[in-house]
Amino acid sequence: MRIHRLARPAVIAAAAVTLVAAACSNTSSTSSTSGGTTTGGFQGTALNGAGSTFAQPLYQLWSQSFLQKEPGAQINYQAIGSGGGIEQFTSQTVDFGATDVPLQSDEISNLPNQNYIEFPTALGAVVFAYNVSGVDSGLKLDGKTIADIFLGNITKWNDPAIASQNSGVNLPDEPIQTVHRSDESGTTAVWTGWLSAESPEWASKVGADKAVQWPGGTGASGNDGVAAGISQTEGGAGYLSYDFAKTAGLGIADIQASDGSYVAPSIESISKAGGGLNFPIQSDTTIINSTAKGAYPVASTTYVLIYTDQTDQAKAQTLVDFWTWALTDGQSQTEQINYSPLPSDFAKSALKELGKITVNGTPVSPTSSMG
Amino acid sequence: MSATISPIAVPPTISSHRRRKDRIFSIALWASVVIALIPLLLIVYRVVRLGVAAVSVSLFAHTALPASMPGGGMKQAFFGTAMIVGIAIVISVPLGVLTGIYLSEYGSGRIASVVRFTAEILLSIPSIVAGAFIWALVVVALGSFSGLAAGVALTVIMWPIMARATEEVLRLVPTELREGGLALGYPRWRVVLRIVLPTAGAGVFTAIMLAVARGLGETAPVLLTALGNDFVNTNPLKPTDAVPLRVYNYAQSAYPAWRALAWGGALMLLVGVLVLSVTARMLSIRQQRRMR
Amino acid sequence: MATVDAPPKAAPATPLSRRRRFGDRAFRWTTLVVSVGLVVMLAMLLWVLADGGWRAIREFGVHFVIGRDWNPVTGRETYGALPFIFGTVVTSLIAMIIAMPIGVGVALFLNESGSAWIKNPLAVLVDLLAAIPSVVYGLWGLFVLVPLFDRTVQPWMSASIGKVPVIGSLFQYKGPGGDIFTAGVILAIMILPIVTAVTREVVSVVSTETREAAMALGATRYETIRLGVLPTARPGIIGAGMLGLGRALGETIAVALVIGNSTNITASLFNPGYTIPAVIANEFREATSAGVHRSALLFLALLLVLIALGMATVSRLLVRRTTRLMGGDVAAQEEAATSTLGMA
């Protein structure tokens, strides 16, 4: 029976498109041994990860760099927020999840099984950023003042609470437009955790979590959404990761530490805060308000979640290789994008966690070139 | 002494009051046309101006890169859209044409009325709902976001369009052609497939173009079903990128490089959609002239 | 003696006819099954959403639609969808208030305009508005309309209308950023083509006699339209409006980019807000299935589709009734609506 004459061209067109796509694709996304160029040996396979936008610049950079080591390891990281990362990890639609706060007890009990590892990958900071003409970076603020800004108690830039900490700075008589996260965010959890510690009013009225009822302000999606929101708004202010704030050219505040001094976020001050980490990671593991001298008060790690009982050899091998590389060689790339490397003993502990990954019972060790 | 003859433009019984109202009305109509066109011009102008700057070989030849690395593009998004829309076409065109054939050739009964009604109201379905539906069906079943799921989500939207448009086009084919075919002894199915459908051929093609123009630009269904991918993906069962999705994400980013790419992607979407729509319209005008 | 010829061999008992009948039946059956499949798909859609969403209703009941607190965090979940319902209704209302007069105006213009020279290109341009993808509207809205309104329109309106008692509270400008008003304006632009297309078809079927009769009585064009055409076409125009409204209610991406994503309900239209489609788009991928979050979003999706399909149904009835009443070509009118809706 003759098929309609338009059906044939349509099918040919669709087939042609698919063939062209296949022919021109960079590397195969399923095969684990695509044409090796430089190193013989394991080429890696495609992986999917999702979660924290805080970690996005870092993981995407690592993903590109790792292609030099294993050309087949196309590690697709989609930044949908820590909440999204945890959910997709729970539904097992991704190979690894990423979150800025450790799993909480309810989330752990929601997992299909308890055989997973959780390890930090780098240190970063959550900063208070702003876009006020005439006011450069380095505005000095303490936790209570910042909490009051987000509470709506302080509404103008030239409020006495701000001015008293910043004599000599020309603060305009402008409203403060706060921007917060509209998605479930680990960055929010870290930030509100710190605000709760600094302001009893915040702790009782709003509290700390990945999403809270903000007393006002605009919601934006992801760290990049917040950066965009602040930079497009005269008088805008919000909280976001150090890298995003710096890249967007926003003013960044110096925050008062527990000893009264004002600390600006920097690679050094973030590194100093790294002392608070301990394995195994608990739900309340945090490195904010570190007592180390010169440590930035709102420093944060970011975590990766991987199930230990893997079934796909190529995927498991790529996972182990990639994160091993990230925790060793990859650490040297953190500073160029405003993150800090993990303290070396924690990197070692994290590497030990990776050793728990097995394929059908057999542990997976990193390919030798990973170190 | 010369008599002046006043030209009678309007019957003298219309008072100046009524004439003025008529004038105001005409002005109001003109004004609404102008107001309606202003956004179109503004949008096209802005998208072209900012998009052209971003359209280069790099947009198509390079895949996505982190903002810290220069030279990124949207190659993987174009491939993804091609794959997703390709899947949607392969599914929705046969389904839509067959539905359209049923409605036009056998379309006088109760069942046909229900089908027709369904197709028509489905034209108004919010696309985010199609995404949620297919997420629950395909993504959950496969255990993964995928290009296939996105293609099926687009099918939910494109099938009714294809069905209704095909029905309209087939109805325009004169009954005489059908009767002639039947009189010659052809079975019904042959009459439809060999006579009616080919005659309406350009019209069906137009319907496909309209449906594709719609599917090309849809973000919401893809957002919930495809996850997105920074790499070119040829496996329909794996997460895939798409141009509208990439534009949506880049639009909310703070990096100028990514925002520029967003405008570039938007321009390409606009060009694709406009070319398809305008061609479809021209084809259908020609087709209608042929039929009537 | 004349012999009577045997009747021609078209009698049903021959093998050729049986094959033909089988072919015909198979063909008809195939198209029937596929077509019914479309209805089945709609049924499945409603079922899947209802099945996924009933948990939210079971846990929260009526509070789901009247509560104002929306907190998806595990362990502290509470879902009151009023902010989204409010935002959806208000943005759509703004869109209707702007798009209806202009859409009807354009439709009347296109209908009255004699010269094809103006009519055809204009019709094409209005249809192009329908073809622009939602994400392009959103991108433009975010980077052009929002800053423009923040710098000019909103402060001006706040200073003028904003001073009027009662109504003024709707127009208080608090600061830059996305807001309900801008979202409503974008929606207006997006639904304009539908309103225009359907109104145009409805108005065109008003029989020429009505028009000529009015003209013969000495009515101006304005009077003809206002007193002769519009009253008859009114149900159809309402139908056009409902179609546009349905579209406005369901629009996701453009709104999500310009509305500011805030779950606070405030009086001023210049404050950020949230709509049902926008919250579904933003929160869907992070919504846990263990808790009630996902169920809440699926229920919202169900609500949305029921309202949109309901509007489409009523609209269809109104438009068809007007068309048929005027002895117009229902098929032609539907074709126009289909192609515009298809692009939208």
Stretches of chain A where pLDDT falls below 50 for ≥5 residues?
A: 21-39
- The oligomeric state of the chains shown is heterotrimer
Specify which chain pair forms the largest interface. Answer: B-C, 101 and 95 residues
Q: Which stretches of chain B are low in confidence, meaning pLDDT under 50 for 5 or more residues running?
A: none
Distance between the termini of chain B: 60 Å
Write the element-wise H/E pattern of chain A from the N-terminal end onward. Answer: HEHEHEHEEHHEHHEHEHEEEHEEHHEE
Broad structural category of chain B: mainly alpha
The helix content of chain B, as a percent range, equals over 70%
Describe the structure.
The complex is a heterotrimer of chains A (371), B (292) and C (344). In chain A, the strands form three sheets. In chain A, strands 1, 2, 3, 4, 6, 7, 8, 9 and 12 form a nine-stranded mixed beta sheet that branches. In chain A, strands 5-10-11 form a three-stranded mixed beta sheet. Chain A is 34% helix and 18% strand. Chain A has helices at 7-24, 56-69, 82-90, 105-110, 143-151, 160-163, 186-198, 200-205, 222-231, 242-247, 267-272, 313-327, 344-354, and strands at 47-51, 75-79, 96-99, 116-131, 140-141, 177-181, 218-220, 236-241, 251-252, 254-256, 262-263, 299-307, 309-310, 358-359, 362-363. Chain A is built from 13 helices and 15 strands. Chain A is of the alpha/beta class. In chain A, a hairpin with a 5-residue loop joins strand 10 and strand 11 (262-263). Mean pLDDT of chain A is 87; it is low at 21-39. Chain B has 292 residues and is an all-alpha fold. In chain B, 75% of the residues lie in helices and 0% in strands. Chain B has helices at 16-54, 57-61, 75-105, 110-122, 127-142, 147-171, 175-183, 188-199, 201-217, 220-225, 243-251, 256-291. In chain B, helix 3 (75-105) crosses helix 9, helix 5 (127-142) crosses helix 6 and helix 9 (201-217) runs antiparallel to helix 12 (256-291). The radius of gyration of chain B is 25 Å and the shape is globular. The termini of chain B are far apart. The mean pLDDT of chain B is 91. Chain C is mostly helical. Chain C has helices at 15-60, 63-66, 82-112, 116-131, 134-159, 180-204, 208-216, 221-250, 253-258, 276-283, 293-325, 330-343, and strands at 70-71, 78-79. In chain C, strand 1 and strand 2 (78-79) form a beta hairpin. Chain C is flat and about 70 Å long. Mean pLDDT of chain C is 87; it is low at 10-15. The chains are: A alpha/beta (371), B mainly alpha (292), C mainly alpha (344). At the A-B interface, helix 1, helix 2, strand 2 and helix 9 of A face helix 3, helix 8 and helix 9 of B.
